[in-house]
Amino acid sequence: MQNLQTSPFVPRLNPDDYLHVFRWKEEEALGRLEEIVCQHGYAQPEVAKGKYLYAPGSTPLLLVAHADTVFGNGRTKIEILRGEDDMGAYLTSPQGLGADDRAGIIGILHMLAHTAHRPSLLITLGEERGCIGAQAFAERHGSALAGSELRYAVELDRRGDMQAVFYLNNQVREFTRFVTGYGFRHEIGSSSDITRLQEYGLCAVNRSVGYYGEHRTTERWYPRHLDNTLAALSRMLADAPVARRFRFEV
């Protein structure tokens, strides 16, 4: 039996272990993820068909990612190519890789496979079409989450390496200092799934997962940049039980 880590440590991911995630069809993604999270000890995730999967966990953080891509369905036959440049090794596809945001999904799966932390999970559909799944989830659960023991939410859906975007709680200085204390640099963004949760006062941050050139067939994904985020995220998960609850007035 695998010895899962409870310390702030997660091994580097092997991209070959997760190539199948890029090939999931959108309509099957939530079903596949439901099966996987149940294998990792989550009991009866809530699945709203075509909108979101929500799995409450024991570690008081919420991780968020979206399973849709701008490239739509029929992803099973995409050609995945490898390359390397001055930023490191990368994956790409002439059909469009969809690392925005399948890389975020991979990050969550890797954390579950290699650590004992079990944060609450929200996987959405429709982010690229106006955060449809996140809106449906927020309408059902937003108020309850804001009043819960969750410390804050972390979305894995940002381009680049070690960036942190805060959106509606951009001016909550205690929270920005807390997050950047884990090595992230503060950047500016417009909107993402977590903005729907922030409308209820829950502090949240979007973190880099290593994609560049998103929404284009020239998109590239650098796995080592996701590793950097996961190393910091594992520390945040380990610290979560003693972290404060971050909220703000909306």
Give the CATH class: Alpha Beta
H/E order of the elements? HHEEEEEHEHEEHEHEEEH
CATH topology (level 3) name: Aminopeptidase
Q: Tell me, rounded to a whole number, the average pLDDT.
A: 94
Structural summary, described in words:
- By secondary structure, the chain is of the alpha/beta class.
- It has one domain: 3-Layer(aba) Sandwich (Aminopeptidase), CATH 3.40.630.
- It is 32% helix and 21% strand.
- The chain is built from seven helices and twelve strands.
- An eight-stranded mixed β-sheet has the order 1-2-6-3-7-10-8-9, with helices on both faces.
- Strand 8 (163-165), helix 5 (173-180) and strand 9 (185-187) form a beta-alpha-beta unit.
- It is globular, with a radius of gyration of 17 Å.
- It starts with 18 loop residues before the first helix and ends in an 11-residue tail after the last helix.
- The model has no long low-confidence stretch (mean pLDDT 94).
Tag the structure with descriptive keywords:
Aminopeptidase; 250 residues; alpha/beta; 21% strand; 32% helix; 7 helices; 12 strands
Topology:
Blueprint (H helix, E strand, L loop, with lengths): L18 H4 L3 H14 L6 E3 L3 E4 L3 E8 L14 E5 L2 E5 L6 H16 L4 E6 L7 H15 L6 E6 L4 E3 L7 H8 L4 E3 L5 H6 L5 E5 L2 E2 L7 E2 L1 H17 L11
Helix pairs in contact: 3-7
Task: Give a short summary of the structure.
This protein is 32% helix and 21% strand. By secondary structure, it is of the alpha/beta class.
